[in-house]
Amino acid sequence: MAAGSLHREFCFDCTHRFHLYDRGICLYRYDSVRRTVYRFKYGGRQEYAAFLGQEMAQRLGKQLLAWKPDALVPVPLHPVRLKKRGYNQAALLARELGRRLEIPVVEDWLIREKNTAPLKMTDGRKRQKSLKNAFKIVQNELKLKTIIIIDDIYTTGSTVDAIAALCRQHGVEKVYFAALSVGSGM
Description:
The chain is globular. It contains 7 helices and 6 strands. It has a single domain, classed as Rossmann fold. It is of the alpha/beta class. The chain has a 4-stranded parallel beta sheet with strand order 1-6-5-2. A two-stranded antiparallel sheet has the order 3-4. Strand 5, helix 7 (about 160-170) and strand 6 (about 175-180) form a beta-alpha-beta unit. Helices cover about 40% and strands about 20% of the residues. The longest helix is centred in the first third of the chain and has 19 residues, at about 50-65. The chain has helices at about 10-15, 30-40, 50-65, 80-85, 90-100, 125-130, 160-170, and strands at about 25-30, 70-75, 110, 135, 145-155, 175-180.
């Protein structure tokens, strides 16, 4: 995974830990966009998706297209959290990216069955345990070989790894991710 300006081939996390995805890319360091991400995610600022999606498409689009994805797959929210928030910020980003890069977006292929506690304050091991069996593929007839998981924040990779493991069990050969931001220490 490379973060920000794409100067490094791997982030600190990927040089010290094995992941189940093939590669990933992030646009910003979380510290530099913390308030923006907070407003977008929790403050009802859905309109931020247009600008942030455009930035992701402009700055990360060449790499995303090089991966030749069958679809963009946003990290799903549990229905309880979706109802409370009113929208899924990852899905909004995926729609913008998909529209701008002409890549299909699949929002109803993968669901979040387990309503995990917010993961922002937990360490990697607790995240992994919390995410065990959290996701389910509900459209078995849709066969995807290469996907890009879309999320707002990449911290430890536990969410992406949990989704990647499930996807590989369902025949997905290449799993990439693109996130708006990468947490500190990565």
